[in-house]
Design brief:
The protein has 208 residues and is an alpha/beta fold. It is 19% helix and 28% strand. The strands form two sheets. The chain has a six-stranded mixed β-sheet with strand order 4-3-2-5-6-7. Strands 1-9-8 form a three-stranded antiparallel β-sheet. The structure holds 1-O-pyrophosphono-5-O-phosphono-alpha-D-ribofuranose. 1-O-pyrophosphono-5-O-phosphono-alpha-D-ribofuranose binds next to strand 3, strand 5 and helix 3.
Length: 208
Amino acid sequence: MRQTPPVRAQGLESRLSNTRGVPARWRSDLDCVLISQAQIARRVRSLAREIEGDYRTRDLVIVSLLNGTVMFLADLIRQVSIPLRLDFIGVSSYGAGTTSGELVFTKELRLDVKGRDVLIVDDILDTGRTLKRVIQRLRPLKPRRLRTCVLLDKTSRRIEKVNADYVGFAIPDVFVVGYGLDYAERYRNLPFVGVLSDRLYTSLTTPQ
Ligand code: PRP
């Protein structure tokens, strides 16, 4: 597999207390824009090129994890110009506030992935609990190969021993919203990744 290293959070930390770039409508909710629309678009294009190269001769099935992955997935697969199949798994952590609580599967896979090359796509890899559980669920279905692609990777928060094969951006441990990611089901529609102001979730014990 040809794989370029994830884009490091270059300069991202320096933006954390800089509200410049946050659209006026969101300034009271967000501390900063962590990753702009243009940065996302560039990185998504380059991830798509890597995936195309790696799966050109393969029977690719993209398995996307609902709900947060919706924007990333839509942008990514439009840039991937090789044949693929697409399916979804619904999985959500229901816990106190933003802590990773119990995982509940809300939609099962419908496609037969036996003998096929499965690429799981998710928006963020945090503790790793979700990805680990999904991998455990897919392995018995006997895909030829099982790989993972995430837009964001918070490596410092990892609890489970799981890594993504394709990573858009390695990010620091801040509460990110937008581009599919939510806080209490809000902010998913922001076209960029922003950092939620901590006064909005101060009662919670863990950042995300
Ligand atoms: C979020 C996110 C990942 C998961 C990552 O999903 O979309 O799937 O958490 O966290 P983890 O690595 O700690 O398991 P969430 O359960 O919030 O559902 P959503 O996609 O509907 O927002």
